[in-house]
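> forwarded from #structure-qc
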């Protein structure tokens, strides 16, 4: 356990603290008696009188609201614990994503083991999507009202509970129990997906907040990648030996349960509500702001009045829902044309996700460099459409190498689109909460994912994988049109051009709140 006491390094500390001096008294995150921040240089006007340069109006409003003089200096420190918090969260997010895909990539194995149909196995993946939609608003409220630590413990705890319930479903007649266990893991996911930006803002400094957010998100994607790769290796298809199959499934289930439990206890040890010292000036301001100043209801209303956001909400749901559907049905598509290639189906899924992780990083770097949000989003959308068309018409050629290549290209653009959508949403909805906009985007993705998985699964079963993929192509083409209609109003970028590292949040009344964004 890493302590945040006096032994802690004062990395990036903004307050000048004399060596060997006793700790200074803190008042709501501010150092009493300190002069203005270094950025407010003094000017000497005619008459010899020195006067401090005026602070930004937003900063003055925030400090005045907190009952603190604008010239006060904030004390900020970076806690060494932040790295442990990020690592533990990334790990249990990884395990949760692994549990989402572990059934779908072995759909033929589990369908034979439990004696159920492929659509019933598909529901073991879709339950994640079904649970997210009604629970996202309560989960977001819980995070705001009860804080980070409780939300993290709920996510890690439910993840472990669902994993242990699966260990009781190691018999052919226990499909209802394994579905219940997967539903518990699905509820855990609701308390996990919304945490990356909060962890990054609360624990990390302004120069590393975006990197921390990206690492937290990549943990979930890496879990999906491992979920494609590991289950086919651990559970080979042995339809003539159900006992051996149950033994192999048990190894996977018990291993997942043990790891999940360990991560739950680590969450209890490592996670705290916030560090002893705020990591940035904006977090110090947040500590003195009354929470009732922020109106969650008004933020939702504002978002639904924003036409460009509504267009993005639908187009993002189409693209991400199509990705969820392809991931869920990948095993069925592969084994339809390549019988007995369950392991390679998992490797193709791994290729799809890993290529997507690379695409996410490259797209993020490109956006940071060019700020061409709409152009980049539209180009990636078009390339995803082309990639899916090529994948659909080359899947049955009989060459697995071709499927690996087309799957990798498809994953690069489809998964690379995910951070583009989030960042574009933040730009066009500023100054609304990025947590609220991203939550609505995720909810849209889950709804489209459910519909697409059901329809594509039916088309794949009754006709062919090509029919299901053509269905997705048609919807992605609609998404291209909607994306082209979005008005590119880069509000956050325009503000950052004059006020760097400050985002004014939408609140009730005339109050202001500032946070770091990721």
């Amino acid at each position: 356990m890493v302590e945040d006491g006096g032994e802690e390094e004062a990395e990036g500390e903004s307050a000048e603290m004399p060596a060997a001096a006793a700790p200074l008294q803190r008042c709501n995150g501010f150092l009493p008696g300190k002069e203005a921040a270094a950025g407010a240089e003094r000017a000497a006007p005619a008459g010899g009188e020195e006067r401090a340069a005026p602070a930004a109006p937003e900063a003055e409003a925030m400090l005045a609201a907190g009952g603190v003089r604008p010239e006060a200096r904030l004390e900020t420190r970076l806690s060494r614990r932040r790295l442990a918090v990020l690592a533990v969260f990334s790990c249990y997010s990884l395990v949760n994503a692994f549990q989402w895909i572990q059934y779908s990539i072995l759909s033929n194995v589990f369908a034979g083991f439990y004696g159920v149909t492929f659509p019933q196995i598909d529901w073991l993946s879709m339950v994640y999507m079904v649970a997210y939609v009604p629970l996202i608003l309560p989960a977001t409220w819980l995070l705001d009202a009860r804080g980070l630590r409780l939300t993290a413990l709920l996510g890690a705890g439910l993840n472990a509970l669902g994993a242990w319930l699966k260990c009781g479903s190691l018999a052919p007649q226990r499909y209802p129990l394994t579905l219940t266990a997967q539903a518990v893991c699905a509820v855990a996911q609701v308390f996990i997906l919304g945490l990356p930006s909060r962890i990054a803002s609360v624990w990390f400094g302004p120069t590393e907040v975006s990197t921390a957010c990206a690492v937290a998100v990549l943990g979930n994607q890496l879990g999906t990648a491992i979920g494609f790769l590991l289950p086919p290796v651990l559970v080979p298809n042995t339809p003539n030996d159900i006992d051996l199959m149950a033994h192999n499934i048990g190894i996977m289930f018990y291993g997942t349960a043990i790891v999940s439990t360990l991560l739950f206890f680590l969450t209890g040890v490592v996670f705290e509500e916030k560090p002893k010292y705020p990591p940035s000036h904006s977090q110090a301001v947040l500590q003195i702001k009354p929470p009732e100043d922020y109106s969650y209801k008004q933020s939702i209303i504002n978002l639904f009045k924003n036409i460009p956001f509504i267009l993005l909400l639908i187009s993002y749901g189409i693209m991400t829902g199509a990705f969820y559907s392809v991931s869920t049905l990948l095993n069925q598509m592969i084994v339809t044309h390549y019988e007995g290639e369950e392991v390679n189906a998992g490797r193709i899924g791994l290729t799809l996700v890993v290529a997507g992780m690379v695409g996410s990083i490259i797209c993020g770097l490109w956006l940071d460099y060019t700020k061409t949000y709409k152009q980049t989003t539209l180009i990636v959308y078009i390339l995803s459409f082309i990639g899916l068309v090529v994948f659909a018409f080359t899947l049955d050629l009989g060459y697995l190498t071709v499927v690996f290549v087309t799957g990798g290209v498809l994953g690069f653009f489809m998964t690379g689109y995910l951070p583009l959508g989030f960042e574009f949403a933040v730009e066009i909805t500023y100054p609304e909460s990025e947590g609220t906009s991203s939550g609505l985007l995720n909810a849209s993705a889950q709804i489209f994912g459910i519909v697409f998985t059901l329809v594509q699964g039916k088309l794949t079963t009754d006709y062919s994988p090509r029919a299901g993929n053509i269905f997705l192509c048609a919807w992605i083409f609609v998404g291209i049109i909607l994306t082209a209609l979005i008005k590119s109003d880069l509000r956050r970028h325009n503000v950052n051009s004059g006020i760097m590292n400050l985002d004014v949040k939408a609140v009730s009344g005339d109050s202001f709140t500032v946070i770091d964004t990721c």
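QC bot note: Residues 1-72, 498-518 have pLDDT under 50 and may be disordered. Residues 78-274 form a domain with the Growth Hormone; Chain: A; fold (CATH 1.20.1250.20).
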